[in-house]
């Protein structure tokens, strides 16, 4: 069984709903929580570690550690807060820089964008079109989810796990990394 690490930047409620099928009304914001679960992805049994981290820029120094070890990324924001979506661009750029150093192109980095709290229609500040436009600009999937009502939670985690398994197939040893240079030339 292959181990995969998914880094979730943002909404802890989504992770708790996925792992425990439970919605926690009140929880303390965390810097980091780690959860382990087993998932079936395209017929493969995978051990998945979900590293749930604070999505705010105040923890950017810690993010680089998570980004190096992450196989895939869930960038979550609250549909009830414009500020939360605005922080994602900086976080995404840091992920891409980190993964580029490992030889991955932006298209190869497994990532999903998630607007959480889609059930809070009257409190919504981020229009659906904004999430869709960002998703199209990044060429990554976008989900509107509700941890409270279990809307699109399974789907978004299935999507990111499927992307990660495609990038790092279970039969492959080690992480997939492209060679930046095929040989060394001394001039």
Describe this structure as you would to a colleague.
With 187 residues, the chain is an alpha/beta fold. It has one domain: Rossmann fold, CATH 3.40.50.300. Helix content is 34%, strand content 24%. The protein is built from six helices and six strands; from the N terminus they run βαββαβααβαβα. The protein has helices at 12-20, 60-69, 82-86, 88-101, 128-138, 153-167, and strands at 2-9, 32-41, 44-53, 72-78, 111-116, 142-145. The protein has a six-stranded mixed β-sheet with strand order 2-3-1-4-5-6, with helices on both faces. Helix 2 (60-69) packs across helix 4. The chain is globular. The N and C termini lie far apart (46 Å). The relative contact order is 0.19. The model is unreliable at 176-187 (pLDDT under 50). One of its GO terms (biological process) is signal transduction. GO terms for molecular function: GTP binding; GTPase activity. InterPro entries: P-loop_NTPase, Small_GTP-bd, Small_GTPase, Small_GTPase_Ras-type. Pfam families: Ras. Its main location: membrane.
Concise account of the structure shown:
With 187 residues, the protein is α/β, with parallel strands linked by helices. The chain has helices spanning 12-20, 60-69, 82-86, 88-101, 128-138, 153-167, and strands spanning 2-9, 32-41, 44-53, 72-78, 111-116, 142-145. One of its GO terms (biological process) is signal transduction.
């Amino acid at each position: 069984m292959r181990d995969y690490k998914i880094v979730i930047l943002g909404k802890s409620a989504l992770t708790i709903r996925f792992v425990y099928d439970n919605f926690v009304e009140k929880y303390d914001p965390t810097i980091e929580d780690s959860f382990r679960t087993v998932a079936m992805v395209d017929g493969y049994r995978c051990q998945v570690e979900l590293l749930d981290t604070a999505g705010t820029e105040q923890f950017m120094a810690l993010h680089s550690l998570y980004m190096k070890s992450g196989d895939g990324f869930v960038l979550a924001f609250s549909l009830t807060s414009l500020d939360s979506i605005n922080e994602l661009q900086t976080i995404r750029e840091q992920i891409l820089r980190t993964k580029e150093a490992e030889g991955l192109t932006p298209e190869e980095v497994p990532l999903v964008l998630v607007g959480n709290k889609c059930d809070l229609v009257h409190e919504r500040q981020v229009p659906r079109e904004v999430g869709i436009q960002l998703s199209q600009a990044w060429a990554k999937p976008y989900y509107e989810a509700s941890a409270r009502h279990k809307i699109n939670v399974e789907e978004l985690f299935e999507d990111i796990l499927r992307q990660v398994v495609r990038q790092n197939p279970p039969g492959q040893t080690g992480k997939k990394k492209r060679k930046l240079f095929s040989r060394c030339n001394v001039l």
